[in-house]
Amino acid sequence: MALQCLRLLEKTLVATISRTNQGVLTGRSHLRSFPNQAAMPRVAPDQEVVADFSKEENEEKNEIMSNVNKQVKEDKHGRLFAVIQLCGKQFKVTNEDLIIVEGYWDPQAGDKIKMEKVLLVGSSDFTLVGRPILPSSLVHVEGTVIEKSLSSIRTHFKKTPRKQFQRINFSRIPQTFVRINTVEIRREVNEKVDVEGIEGRIF
Q1: Is the full-model pTM beyond 0.90?
Q2: Residue ranges of the domains in the chain?
Q3: Integer CA distances (angstroms), 102 to 7, 41, 106, 178, in order
Q4: Phi, psi of 78 (to 5 degrees)
Q5: Residue 19's closest CA among 9, 8, 7, 31?
Q6: C-alpha closest to that of 61 among 184, 192, 187, 189
Q7: Within 13 Å, how many C-alpha atoms sit on residue 144's CB side?
Q8: Quick one: 134 exposed, middle or buried, by C-beta within 10 A (0-12, 13-18, 19+)?
Q9: Per-residue pLDDT tens for 115-145?
Q10: Which neighbouring-strand residues pair with 160?
Protein backbone atom coordinates (compact mmCIF):
# COMPACT_ATOMS: atom_id res chain seq x y z
CA MET A 1 0.00 0.00 0.00
CA ALA A 2 2.78 2.40 0.91
CA LEU A 3 4.61 1.53 -2.31
CA GLN A 4 1.53 2.37 -4.40
CA CYS A 5 1.19 5.76 -2.63
CA LEU A 6 4.83 6.60 -3.34
CA ARG A 7 4.44 5.71 -7.04
CA LEU A 8 1.28 7.86 -7.29
CA LEU A 9 3.07 10.80 -5.65
CA GLU A 10 6.01 10.39 -8.02
CA LYS A 11 3.71 10.46 -11.08
CA THR A 12 1.99 13.59 -9.78
CA LEU A 13 5.32 15.40 -9.26
CA VAL A 14 6.57 14.42 -12.73
CA ALA A 15 3.34 15.67 -14.34
CA THR A 16 3.56 19.00 -12.44
CA ILE A 17 7.20 19.55 -13.41
CA SER A 18 6.49 18.80 -17.06
CA ARG A 19 3.56 21.26 -17.15
CA THR A 20 5.66 23.95 -15.50
CA ASN A 21 8.53 23.44 -17.95
CA GLN A 22 6.13 23.49 -20.87
CA GLY A 23 4.63 26.74 -19.64
CA VAL A 24 8.07 28.32 -19.26
CA LEU A 25 9.23 27.17 -22.70
CA THR A 26 6.09 28.35 -24.47
CA GLY A 27 5.96 31.66 -22.60
CA ARG A 28 2.94 30.66 -20.51
CA SER A 29 2.96 30.26 -16.76
CA HIS A 30 0.48 29.02 -14.22
CA LEU A 31 1.22 32.16 -12.16
CA ARG A 32 -0.72 35.34 -12.79
CA SER A 33 1.38 37.84 -14.70
CA PHE A 34 1.20 41.63 -14.72
CA PRO A 35 -0.98 43.20 -17.44
CA ASN A 36 0.70 44.52 -20.53
CA GLN A 37 1.17 48.22 -21.04
CA ALA A 38 -1.36 48.10 -23.89
CA ALA A 39 -4.00 46.85 -21.46
CA MET A 40 -3.46 49.73 -19.01
CA PRO A 41 -6.03 52.56 -19.17
CA ARG A 42 -4.92 55.54 -21.20
CA VAL A 43 -5.56 59.20 -20.59
CA ALA A 44 -8.60 60.45 -22.42
CA PRO A 45 -7.74 62.92 -25.23
CA ASP A 46 -10.35 65.44 -24.02
CA GLN A 47 -8.74 65.85 -20.58
CA GLU A 48 -6.92 69.06 -19.72
CA VAL A 49 -4.81 70.40 -16.88
CA VAL A 50 -6.84 72.56 -14.49
CA ALA A 51 -5.16 75.21 -12.32
CA ASP A 52 -5.66 75.21 -8.56
CA PHE A 53 -7.52 78.53 -8.63
CA SER A 54 -9.17 80.34 -11.47
CA LYS A 55 -8.75 84.05 -12.07
CA GLU A 56 -12.07 84.86 -10.41
CA GLU A 57 -11.21 82.71 -7.38
CA ASN A 58 -7.82 84.43 -7.03
CA GLU A 59 -9.48 87.85 -7.15
CA GLU A 60 -12.00 86.77 -4.51
CA LYS A 61 -9.25 85.34 -2.30
CA ASN A 62 -7.17 88.53 -2.56
CA GLU A 63 -10.21 90.63 -1.70
CA ILE A 64 -10.92 88.54 1.41
CA MET A 65 -7.26 88.75 2.47
CA SER A 66 -7.23 92.53 2.05
CA ASN A 67 -10.42 92.93 4.11
CA VAL A 68 -9.03 90.75 6.93
CA ASN A 69 -5.69 92.57 6.92
CA LYS A 70 -7.48 95.93 6.98
CA GLN A 71 -9.47 94.91 10.06
CA VAL A 72 -6.33 93.60 11.78
CA LYS A 73 -4.34 96.75 10.97
CA GLU A 74 -7.05 99.14 12.12
CA ASP A 75 -8.02 96.93 15.10
CA LYS A 76 -11.67 96.80 14.03
CA HIS A 77 -12.14 93.04 14.27
CA GLY A 78 -13.67 93.26 17.73
CA ARG A 79 -13.33 90.56 20.36
CA LEU A 80 -11.20 87.63 19.20
CA PHE A 81 -11.63 84.03 20.29
CA ALA A 82 -9.22 81.12 19.94
CA VAL A 83 -9.19 77.35 20.21
CA ILE A 84 -6.07 76.17 22.03
CA GLN A 85 -4.74 72.77 23.03
CA LEU A 86 -3.41 72.50 26.55
CA CYS A 87 -2.39 69.30 28.34
CA GLY A 88 -4.13 67.11 25.77
CA LYS A 89 -7.44 69.00 25.87
CA GLN A 90 -8.91 71.73 23.68
CA PHE A 91 -10.41 74.94 25.06
CA LYS A 92 -12.30 77.74 23.34
CA VAL A 93 -11.08 80.93 25.01
CA THR A 94 -11.25 84.71 24.72
CA ASN A 95 -9.90 87.62 26.76
CA GLU A 96 -10.37 87.37 30.54
CA ASP A 97 -11.61 83.77 30.36
CA LEU A 98 -10.86 81.35 33.18
CA ILE A 99 -10.02 77.73 32.32
CA ILE A 100 -9.36 74.79 34.62
CA VAL A 101 -6.62 72.30 33.74
CA GLU A 102 -7.02 69.01 35.58
CA GLY A 103 -4.10 66.78 36.53
CA TYR A 104 -0.54 67.40 37.62
CA TRP A 105 1.03 70.41 35.84
CA ASP A 106 4.35 72.10 36.60
CA PRO A 107 3.56 75.87 36.36
CA GLN A 108 3.08 77.62 39.69
CA ALA A 109 0.81 80.49 40.68
CA GLY A 110 1.90 83.76 39.06
CA ASP A 111 3.61 82.18 36.04
CA LYS A 112 2.79 83.60 32.60
CA ILE A 113 2.29 81.05 29.84
CA LYS A 114 2.32 81.51 26.08
CA MET A 115 -0.02 79.08 24.33
CA GLU A 116 1.91 77.56 21.43
CA LYS A 117 -0.75 75.19 20.09
CA VAL A 118 -3.36 77.57 18.70
CA LEU A 119 -5.67 75.66 16.36
CA LEU A 120 -8.04 78.46 15.38
CA VAL A 121 -8.54 82.20 15.79
CA GLY A 122 -11.60 84.13 14.73
CA SER A 123 -13.95 87.05 15.21
CA SER A 124 -17.48 87.91 14.10
CA ASP A 125 -16.33 88.49 10.47
CA PHE A 126 -13.53 85.99 9.79
CA THR A 127 -11.86 82.82 11.06
CA LEU A 128 -8.26 81.68 10.65
CA VAL A 129 -7.87 77.90 10.77
CA GLY A 130 -4.49 76.25 11.28
CA ARG A 131 -3.27 73.13 9.49
CA PRO A 132 -3.00 71.83 12.17
CA ILE A 133 -1.79 74.87 14.17
CA LEU A 134 -1.32 78.55 13.37
CA PRO A 135 2.20 80.05 13.24
CA SER A 136 3.38 81.48 16.55
CA SER A 137 4.44 84.68 14.78
CA LEU A 138 0.86 85.26 13.57
CA VAL A 139 -1.21 84.61 16.72
CA HIS A 140 -0.37 85.39 20.33
CA VAL A 141 -2.36 83.84 23.18
CA GLU A 142 -1.09 84.39 26.73
CA GLY A 143 -2.38 83.33 30.11
CA THR A 144 -1.47 83.57 33.79
CA VAL A 145 -1.69 80.85 36.42
CA ILE A 146 -3.74 82.34 39.26
CA GLU A 147 -4.31 79.35 41.54
CA LYS A 148 -3.39 75.71 42.12
CA SER A 149 -5.73 73.63 44.24
CA LEU A 150 -7.57 70.33 44.49
CA SER A 151 -10.95 69.43 43.06
CA SER A 152 -14.00 68.59 45.14
CA ILE A 153 -14.13 65.15 46.73
CA ARG A 154 -15.13 62.44 44.27
CA THR A 155 -16.66 59.22 45.54
CA HIS A 156 -15.92 55.83 43.96
CA PHE A 157 -18.21 53.05 45.18
CA LYS A 158 -17.83 49.40 44.18
CA LYS A 159 -20.14 46.56 45.13
CA THR A 160 -20.50 42.93 44.03
CA PRO A 161 -24.02 41.57 44.58
CA ARG A 162 -24.43 38.43 46.68
CA LYS A 163 -20.69 38.36 47.46
CA GLN A 164 -20.58 40.55 50.59
CA PHE A 165 -18.09 42.84 48.86
CA GLN A 166 -18.21 46.63 48.77
CA ARG A 167 -15.59 49.35 48.77
CA ILE A 168 -15.85 53.11 48.92
CA ASN A 169 -12.92 55.37 47.98
CA PHE A 170 -12.49 59.14 47.86
CA SER A 171 -10.17 61.10 45.59
CA ARG A 172 -9.25 64.70 44.77
CA ILE A 173 -7.61 65.70 41.48
CA PRO A 174 -5.05 68.55 41.25
CA GLN A 175 -6.39 71.56 39.37
CA THR A 176 -4.71 74.61 37.82
CA PHE A 177 -6.70 77.80 37.18
CA VAL A 178 -5.46 79.85 34.21
CA ARG A 179 -6.66 83.33 33.31
CA ILE A 180 -6.39 84.21 29.60
CA ASN A 181 -4.83 87.66 29.29
CA THR A 182 -4.60 88.35 25.56
CA VAL A 183 -5.75 86.87 22.26
CA GLU A 184 -4.33 88.91 19.39
CA ILE A 185 -3.15 88.74 15.77
CA ARG A 186 0.31 90.26 15.43
CA ARG A 187 0.81 90.59 11.66
CA GLU A 188 -0.95 90.44 8.32
CA VAL A 189 -2.40 87.10 7.33
CA ASN A 190 -0.63 86.70 3.96
CA GLU A 191 2.66 88.23 5.06
CA LYS A 192 5.62 85.98 4.35
CA VAL A 193 8.23 85.58 7.06
CA ASP A 194 11.88 84.76 6.44
CA VAL A 195 11.97 81.54 8.44
CA GLU A 196 9.09 79.32 9.52
CA GLY A 197 9.64 76.21 11.59
CA ILE A 198 8.97 74.52 14.88
CA GLU A 199 11.81 76.16 16.82
CA GLY A 200 10.70 77.38 20.21
CA ARG A 201 7.47 75.39 20.22
CA ILE A 202 6.46 73.30 23.18
CA PHE A 203 5.08 69.88 22.27
Answers
A1: no
A2: 1-28, 80-185
A3: 77, 57, 12, 11
A4: 80, -155
A5: 31
A6: 189
A7: 6
A8: buried
A9: 999 999 999 999 999 989 999 889 999 999 9
A10: 165
